[in-house]
Amino acid sequence: MSRSTPLGGLAGALGLEIPTVAAPMAGGPGTPELVVAAAAAGGIGFLAAGYKSAHQLAEQITQVRASTPRFGVNLFVPNPVPVDPAAYRDYLDLLRPWADRFGVELPERPLEDDDAWREKHQLLVDNPVPVVSLTFGLPERESIASLQRAGSRVLQTVTSAAEALRAEAVGVDGLIVQSSQAGGHSGSWTPRRHSDETTTVALVRRIRAVSSRPIWAAGGIVSASDVQQVLTAGAEAAIIGTALLRTPESGAHPVHQQALADAHGGETVMTRAFSGRPARGLRNAFTDEFSAAAPLGFPALHHLTSPLRRASAAAGDPAGLNLWAGTGWRAATTEPTGEVLRRLAAR
């Protein structure tokens, strides 16, 4: 596909010239540099607002906007899963040997928050960006409408046809269809239940059959063939995440990047051991020991394991790190972001 040929649909309206999009990757991997590189390649990238303060997000928006007008921001929609206090204490006790091993203190009481939703939402109303994507839940109609009135297109992450229909009913501009092949957290609105195991192509077809909204597909997309398959199934763009984790622009921790390079015989697993919410990552000692025991509870478990994860990374030890990765993780390379996105967009 020529860089000089704009796309149609929502992707074309946003100025995309190639149908590949850099995913929002919270926790460090999704840097402003990666977002700018995606735009320079003819695509678009998303800043991940998750785990940042509104002030930090505003600074990154300013940084990206200085280089490109084409980018998006992803917000975590408040959809808490309060942890049972007794289950929290039991899990804390299970984690103590790991805390002793790394010499860290763990929070004795659950920490619950909404990831500064109101502040970040207001920031985007006052300082609009071209496109906002929403994940973890569906906000009220007025929250979506206020972003649209400010000038943003709004995309809602969905993991099922039922979610897609509810999102369409409240007036979103498009759908991010995320399958169980995706790395990192599932965007499911019902985290107490694992999303159905399905391919991205199959889920796009299922949702295309019931919804007329533009679809951007996410999950396990790591080759030009994968991109063409989701486009043929009814998507207008493909969202790339794991394949960008080892790029020079990625902010993924070096231990995470090295694990992706080393674990050729490994596998990914769905686990809630790190955050209390289903997420896909490389199997390691932590997932083996705690996946079955971890209670539901987001963001309480995210805050509980955070000191362990930081210490594991600082020690250069992948055993205690959340090595988020989708099913196509073996395809992650050290090519620049722009080269990856253009290569995957090639017909």
UniProtKB/TrEMBL annotation:
One GO term (biological process): response to toxic substance
Gene3D superfamilies membership: Aldolase class I
Claim: Oxidoreductase is one of the keywords in the record: yes
Protein name in the entry: Propionate 3-nitronate monooxygenase
Tagged with keyword Repeat: no
CDD domains: NPD_like (cd04730)
Cofactor(s) it depends on: FMN
Reactions catalysed, as given in the entry: 3 propionate 3-nitronate + 3 O2 + H2O = 3 3-oxopropanoate + 2 nitrate + nitrite + H2O2 + 3 H(+)
Family: Belongs to the nitronate monooxygenase family. NMO class I subfamily.
Alphabetized GO MF terms: nitronate monooxygenase activity
Organism this protein belongs to: Nesterenkonia sphaerica
Superkingdom, taxonomy of origin: Bacteria
Keywords of the record: Detoxification, Flavoprotein, FMN, Monooxygenase, Oxidoreductase
